[in-house]
Each structure stands twice: as C-alpha cells, then as structure tokens.
Amino acid sequence: MKGIVVSTLALLLLVVSPEVAGARSRGRGAVAACQRAVARQVRRRHPNAGRVQFLNQRVRKFSKAERGVNGSGRFQLKKGKVYRFSYRCTYNARSGRTYGVRVWRS
After folding, report:
1. The pTM of the whole model exceeds 0.70
2. What does the DSSP 8-state code read for residue 3?
3. Are 79 and 12 in contact (CB under 8 A)?
4. For residue 9, what pLDDT band results from cuts at 50, 70 and 90?
5. b/e sequence 85-96, b meaning 16+ C-beta within 10 Å
6. CATH code for position 18
7. What percent of the chain has pLDDT over 90?
8. How far is Cα 70 from Cα 58, in angstroms, rounded to an integer?
9. Which letter does DSSP use for residue 83 in this model?
10. Residue 46: which of 54, 36, 38, 57 has the closest Cα?
11. In this structure, are residues 59 and 69 in contact, taking their beta carbons and an 8 Å threshold?
12. 100 Ramachandran zone, left/alpha/beta (phi>0; psi -120 to 50)
C-alpha cells in the first residue's frame, strides 16, 4: 500500500512540476525584463548615475501572459549622492515586452 501511495505522489509531482516551473520562470523573466527597463529609465533621467541596485520586488499575475512587478531600488550619482526609488512595470511573456514602466523617487 505504501508503494502505491509513494508512486502516486511521485507521478503527481511529475505532472504538476512543469506547470509550476513555467510559472516561476515567467515571474523571473518579468523581474529581469522590468529591472532592465527601469535601469534604462533611471539612466535616461540621470546620465551621471552609476550602478542601479534593486532592493526588492513583488510579482503579481495579471493574466496567463502578463505579470506586474513592483519594487524599490537605489542608485548613486558619480558625485556620491544616493537616491532611492520605487517602480512599477508590466511584462508580457508572449511578446517579451515591458510597458507601463513608472519610476519615482521615494
């Protein structure tokens, strides 16, 4: 009986795992794409900005293909002043594009 239960659980994990893994990779893809878009926007507004550092993020699922990413970060100007910011972005996994990118000082 134990063997049947263990086999059933193993089979369920094999069936569920690809979907769970796909959802996680879409979330990671959304974070990476949004962080690139945010960093571009920060550098456009502040050409003297050094490294853009992301401190945290939260991913929300809007639809099967879309994820929203909110978070915060900081960057330092070459003269030493540090600025903190918050951001929001939407990522579409089908198109691989970001939109609705907003960055504001916090």
Report:
1. yes
2. H
3. no
4. very low
5. bebebbbbbeee
6. 3.10.450
7. 72
8. 5
9. E
10. 38
11. yes
12. left
Q: Is the dihedral of CA 37, 40, 44, 50 positive or negative?
A: positive
Confidence of residue 18 (pLDDT cuts 50, 70, 90): very low
Reported as a pLDDT band with limits 50, 70 and 90, residue 8 is: very low
Per-residue model confidence as pLDDT tens digits over 36-87? 999 999 999 999 999 999 999 999 999 999 999 999 999 999 889 999 999 9
The percentage of residues in the chain with a pLDDT greater than 70, rounded to a whole number, is 75
The residues, ordered by sequence, that sit 6+ positions from 64 with a Cβ below 8 Å of its Cβ are none
Q: At a CB cut-off of 8 Å and minimum separation 6, what does 88 contact?
A: 68, 69, 70, 100, 101, 102
Token output for 52: 């853009």
Closest CA to 66 of 24, 101, 95: 95
Q: Which domain holds residue 89?
A: 2-105
Query: What is the total count of domains within the chain?
Result: 1
